Amino acid sequence: MQYRTVDYLRDSYWFIEMPINLWEFLKPRLKKFLDKAIDFEYDKYIFRIAENLPYALVILFLGLFAVLTLAKYSEKQNGIRVTTITTNSMYPAIAPGSIIISTPTSIYSKGDIITYKEINPKTGVETGRAITHRIISEGESDKDVIYVTQGDANKQPDPGNIKKEQIFGKVFMIVPFLGYFDIVVKTLPGFTIFIVIPALLLIRNELNFLKEEKRYSLKKSDFVGL
Could you tell me which of 177, 186, 167, 145 has the C-alpha nearest to residue 81? Predict the structure, then answer.
């Protein structure tokens, strides 16, 4: 039996009918979505975002500060050390006001930037300071590996040799400018100005917005009821 064109069209009707049925199914839902999109009051929400953006940035900084603080407290557990740089001895590699993150490694090489605890070369007593400088050479002394360090902006190497047990870790991350925030926010005036006041203002704005939304919803429902 010969397969005619009319038979082909009859058997292929599902292929034509399927997109038509799909369009009939989607058309009312698409219309409803577009109606909502047109009625949506974009300007109100854009104004709200712009109004709260400064406070949101402060909350972001607060989150970063919390992360850095937790990292400092967890230093003994995981060895990661967070340090705020306050001098220009490593400029331009590390600018003053930067935060650095260092972690212990098994091998330190020439060119690595390390953070180590300073020991007075004359008395052999720890000074209580942490120094972040670059290794410029390495050698051995009494079968111990020793390192010579120097700040990139300094003209002379650091006094004394650095032993491996003095090293806190190798710098693997540098965050510029965040150190200034870390320094200021640790003071009572800085914490009050940059954290407490913006947080209270943000809460106040959110409460006012919720009140306005509730008032608008009540007015709209009353209007529809009429």
Answer: 167
Higher pLDDT, 41 or 172: 172
Task: Map residue 151 onto helix, strand or coil.
Answer: coil
Burial class of residue 98 in the structure, from the number of CB atoms within 10 Å of its CB (0-12 exposed, 13-18 middle, 19+ buried): buried
Which residue blocks in 74-100 are alpha helix, DSSP H? Answer: 75-78
> Would residue 204 be called left, alpha or beta, if left means φ above 0 and alpha means ψ between -120 and 50 degrees?
alpha
DSSP category for residue 195: I
Q: Return the CATH superfamily for domain 79-177.
A: Umud Fragment, subunit A (2.10.109.10)
Calculate the CA 108 to chain-centre distance.
28
pLDDT tens track for 95-119: 998 989 898 898 999 999 999 998 8
Residue type present at position 111: G
Global pTM reads: 0.60
